[in-house]
Design a protein that fits this description.
The protein is an alpha/beta fold and 240 residues long. It has one domain: Rossmann fold (3-Layer(aba) Sandwich). Helices cover 41% and strands 15% of the residues. It has 7 helices and 7 strands. Strands 3-2-1-4-5-6-7 form a 7-stranded parallel beta sheet, with helices on both faces. Helix 2 links the parallel strand 2 and strand 3. Helix 1 crosses helix 7 and helix 4 packs parallel to helix 5. The longest helix is centred in the middle third of the chain and has 25 residues.
C-alpha cells in the first residue's frame, strides 16, 4: 500500500473500534483516508482508537449505531456527506451446536451479519460519487459446514452471495468485493501454543495475522478492475 494513496478519500469501517476492524481502519488512515469508525456498544474502545489516530495526525471520528436497527443505520448516514470506501467489518459469532441455536441468536446473526451489510451498502452507494468501493469481511465459515457455528456458516455464505449480487447491481460505478479470513487474530483467552497448534493443521502450516487480512483489504480498495470477488486469506483452510 502506497503512503497517501487514499488521500482525499473518506472511509467508513463498521466495527472499527477494536480487533480486526481497528486494524483495517488504522491501515486506511495510514494510507491517507479520512476515517469514520462505526461502533455499537464499544464507546470507550472507539474513543481510544480515534484518539490514537488523531495523535498520529490522521483525520478520524466515531459514529454509533445499533446495526440490528434499520432506522439507526439510516441515521448513521445523515452524518456522512460523502463516502468513497465502506468496509463492512462488524459481525457477531455464536459458538453453539446446531440443535441448540436459539431463535434470538439466529435472528441476531441475520440482522448483523447479513441485513446490516445490505442496508449499509444501499445507503453507502447513495453517498458515493463517480466511483466507490465496498469490502465485506466474510469468514472461512462461509465456505464450510460448521455444525457448532451454524449461524456463522449460513450468514457468511449468504454475505458472499450478497457481495456478488451487489457487485453486479452497482457496477460500473461501485466495486464490491469480500475477504474471508481464517486464523487471523488469536482469541484473548487462547494460549500461543494452542494457536500455533491449530495453525499447523492448515495447508500452509501456520496461523495468519491481522496484517494478512488488512493487506488484502487495501489491495481490493485500490485495484480498479476487480469486483464480485471473494478472497480467502486462510492459509488454505478452505481447501481442506
Amino acid at each position: 500500500m502506497n503512503t497517501n494513496a487514499l488521500t482525499g478519500k473518506t472511509a467508513l469501517v463498521t466495527g472499527g473500534a477494536h480487533r480486526l476492524g481497528k486494524a483495517i481502519a488504522t491501515a486506511l488512515a495510514q494510507a491517507g483516508a479520512d476515517l469514520i469508525i462505526h461502533y455499537g456498544s464499544s464507546a470507550d474502545a472507539a474513543q481510544r482508537t480515534i484518539a490514537e489516530l488523531q495523535a498520529a495526525g490522521h483525520t478520524a471520528r466515531a459514529l454509533q449505531a445499533n446495526l440490528r436497527d434499520p432506522d439507526a443505520i439510516a441515521q448513521l448516514f445523515t452524518s456522512i456527506d460523502q463516502l468513497d470506501i465502506l468496509v463492512n467489518s462488524a459481525g457477531v459469532f455464536f459458538q453453539v451446536p446446531f440443535e441448540d441455536l436459539s431463535l434470538d441468536q439466529w435472528q441476531t446473526a441475520l440482522d448483523v451479519n447479513l441485513t446490516a451489510p445490505l442496508l449499509l451498502t444501499q445507503h453507502a452507494a447513495k453517498k458515493m460519487g463517480a466511483t466507490g468501493t465496498i469490502v465485506n469481511i466474510s469468514d472461512i465459515g462461509g465456505s464450510k459446514n460448521w455444525i457448532h457455528h451454524p449461524s456463522q456458516s449460513i450468514t457468511k455464505s449468504a454475505l458472499n452471495k450478497l457481495t456478488q449480487v451487489a457487485a453486479r447491481a452497482l457496477a460500473p460505478r461501485i466495486r464490491v468485493n469480500a475477504v474471508a479470513p481464517g486464523l487471523a487474530l488469536k482469541p484473548d483467552d487462547w494460549s500461543e501454543a494452542r494457536w500455533q497448534a491449530l495453525g499447523s493443521k492448515m495447508p500452509l502450516e501456520q496461523p495468519g495475522t491481522a496484517k494478512h487480512i488488512v493487506d488484502t483489504v487495501l489491495f481490493l480498495v485500490q485495484h480498479p478492475y476487480i469486483t464480485g470477488e471473494l478472497i480467502h486469506v486462510d492459509g488454505g483452510d478452505h481447501l481442506r
